[in-house]
């Protein structure tokens, strides 16, 4: 059951309207977190053009994420990476039926407001773009539009949820075509969940309070999460996924779905690869089907990828301590 | 006799529907098991099927891949009750149009003679919760959770309209087929899931 206890009474993003049949509510936790539920077991694909968005939809993506540049190109270009052009976002919204997400900079309240006004379905407060505020993330309860945030540990995930994130994704290391960091992050979150679940089951509330202090979050959210034994919101894998096998592997680690950034549209076989990654995500627990999906792509067409150890820019560290 | 209820586990809100159905069975005191199903073999064993919310384009395309769409159609034509929720109702329909994009050529089951308007109430920011009423099936008050919800723009003969909201049709029934625009599995109220279980039980008698 979807936990609804995350609701804040002071959330400005909740809009209440009266009607003949009673009150109508928008922007509630149920609606925001529920939206993320509809994406489960699906693939969200990064796109920069209408054409790419249509390829993604035809391949069976559950949503597209609009960026100005793919993460690997952001890495190459350097400089300041900002939210995508509104006109391109609107063109994409008019040409596909699946939900459209867009990224804003960490802490950039007004990029987020612009995206909410544009009517995107979800906002990704993303470390792929250059952070606008190193100490504060956006207070997401003030928005009617749901947010997804990246995290590489349980404490980071819970801090984001407490700020109002309706969905979490691993950070991985974006734009590298290297899945290693995403694997590390999801395993770390899973390990930490197991630990707090064990503490909860032992009835040691004092230790849960200690964890809450260490995580810099409230006791309530630690207790709720510990009781559930999983994040109270939908949790996707992201960062460096480039092949069907990558996607299937992350699903097998307990992720609810997959974000693919540069992996598809920076490969030379985008169409087949998009389809293959969707198939591998859906049928991840059937090895025969994952093999068939993997066979649809040509490794020589995969993006080259980067060794994470040699990177000058580690996007995953952005906003992690806040 | 124990019932086997399946939730199509291709994509979307599968787990919540399994939980709601299990709770509903328990409250009714009816013996049964609830399983997530993907393959034709799994679907062939079912007494009733829930097609959950998610993205209808994704669910449709992927259930084509392993022929589960065909199996659902066959079973339903032989009387298996199906409960389509949001994307699931879209899957049951004859034709679907998007409010903005227009006609879609997505794979559909074409089991229920209804026309669907996708994203009928607008994008996610317009998603809403409101009380609705389905008096015809003895559910006078229900918290409707509408997420980028579709509505039924036209019904064929014999399709019963169970509920409307702002003059849009949001719940329909014909024989053993039930379709709703909103998400009962995102609330604690299992009365609609209970109704569906009774439909399955009656279909077995």
Summarize the structure.
The complex is a heterodimer of chains A (322) and B (205). Chain A is of the alpha/beta class and 322 residues long.
Protein model, in words:
The complex is a heterodimer of chains A (322) and B (205). By secondary structure, chain A is of the alpha/beta class. Chain A contains 13 helices and 10 strands. Chain A is 42% helix and 15% strand. Chain A has an 8-stranded parallel β-barrel, surrounded by 8 helices. Chain A has a two-stranded antiparallel sheet with strand order 1-2. Chain A is globular. With 205 residues, chain B is an alpha/beta fold. Chain B has one domain (3-204): Rossmann fold (3-Layer(aba) Sandwich), CATH 3.40.50.880. In chain B, the strands form 3 sheets. A 7-stranded mixed β-sheet of chain B has the order 2-1-3-4-13-12-11. In chain B, strands 6-5-7-10 form a 4-stranded mixed β-sheet. In chain B, helix 1 (14-28) crosses helix 6.
Q: Notable features of this structure?
A:
heterodimer, A: 322 residues, alpha/beta, TIM Barrel, 8-stranded parallel barrel, two-stranded antiparallel sheet, 13 helices, 42% helix, globular, B: 205 residues, Rossmann fold, 7-stranded mixed sheet, 4-stranded mixed sheet, 6 helices, 13 strands
CATH secondary-structure class of chain B? Alpha Beta
Biggest sheet statistics of chain B: 7 strands, mixed
Low-confidence stretches of chain A: none
The first-to-last residue Cα distance of chain A is: 30 Å
Structural class of chain A: alpha/beta
**Helix count of chain A?**
13
CATH architecture of chain A: Alpha-Beta Barrel
Q: How much of the residues of chain A is beta strand, in percent?
A: 5-15%
Q: Structural class given helices, strands, pairing of chain B?
A: alpha/beta
> What is the oligomer described by this structure?
heterodimer
Radius of gyration of chain A: 19 Å
Report the CATH C-level class of chain A: Alpha Beta
């Amino acid at each position: 059951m979807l936990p609804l206890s995350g609701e804040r009474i002071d959330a400005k993003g909740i809009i209440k309207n009266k009607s003949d049949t009673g009150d109508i509510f928008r922007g509630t936790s149920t609606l925001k977190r529920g939206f993320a539920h509809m994406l489960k077991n699906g693939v969200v694909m990064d796109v920069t053009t209408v054409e790419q968005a249509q390829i993604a939809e035809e391949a069976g993506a559950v949503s597209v994420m609009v960026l100005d540049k793919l993460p690997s190109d952001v890495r190459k270009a350097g400089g300041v990476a900002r939210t995508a052009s509104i006109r391109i976002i609107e063109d994409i919204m008019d040409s596909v039926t699946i939900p459209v997400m867009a990224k804003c900079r960490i802490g950039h309240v007004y990029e987020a407001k612009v995206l909410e006004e544009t009517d995107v379905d979800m906002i990704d407060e993303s470390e792929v773009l250059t952070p606008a505020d190193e100490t504060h993330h956006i207070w997401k309860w003030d928005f009617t539009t749901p947010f997804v945030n990246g995290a590489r540990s349980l404490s980071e995930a819970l801090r984001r949820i407490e700020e109002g994130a309706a969905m979490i994704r691993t950070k991985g290391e974006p734009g590298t075509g290297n899945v290693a960091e995403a694997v590390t992050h999801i395993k770390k979150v899973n390990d930490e969940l197991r630990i707090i679940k064990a503490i909860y089951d032992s009835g040691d509330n004092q230790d849960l309070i200690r964890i809450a202090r260490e995580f810099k979050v409230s006791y309530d959210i630690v207790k709720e999460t510990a009781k559930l034994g999983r994040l109270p919101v939908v949790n996707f894998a992201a960062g460096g996924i480039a092949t069907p096998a990558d996607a299937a592997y992350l699903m097998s680690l307990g992720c609810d779905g997959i974000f693919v950034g540069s992996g598809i549209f920076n490969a030379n076989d985008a169409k087949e690869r998009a389809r293959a990654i969707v198939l591998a995500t859906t049928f991840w627990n059937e090895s025969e089907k994952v093999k068939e999906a993997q066979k649809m792509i040509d490794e020589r067409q995969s993006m080259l990828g980067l060794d994470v150890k040699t990177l000058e820019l580690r996007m995953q560290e952005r906003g992690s301590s806040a | 006799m124990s019932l086997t209820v399946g939730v199509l586990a291709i994509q979307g809100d599968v787990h919540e529907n399994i939980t709601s159905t299990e709770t509903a069975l328990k409250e009714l005191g009816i013996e049964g098991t609830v399983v997530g199903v993907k393959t034709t073999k799994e679907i062939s064993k079912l007494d009733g099927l829930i097609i959950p919310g998610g993205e209808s384009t994704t669910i449709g395309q992927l259930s084509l891949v392993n022929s589960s769409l065909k199996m659902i159609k066959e079973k339903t034509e032989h009387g298996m009750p199906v409960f389509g929720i949001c994307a699931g109702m879209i899957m049951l329909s004859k034709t679907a149009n998007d409010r903005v994009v227009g006609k879609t050529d997505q794979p559909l089951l074409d089991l229920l003679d209804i026309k669907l308007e996708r994203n009928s109430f607008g994008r996610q920011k317009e998603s809403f919760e409101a009380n609705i009423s389905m008096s015809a099936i003895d559910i006078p008050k229900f918290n409707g959770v509408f997420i980028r919800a579709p509505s039924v723009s036209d019904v064929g003969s014999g399709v019963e309209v169970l509920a409307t909201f702002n003059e849009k049709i949001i719940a329909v029934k014909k024989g053993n087929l039930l379709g709703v625009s909103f998400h009962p599995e995102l609330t604690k109220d299992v009365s609609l899931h209970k109704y569906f279980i009774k439909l399955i039980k009656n279909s077995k008698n």
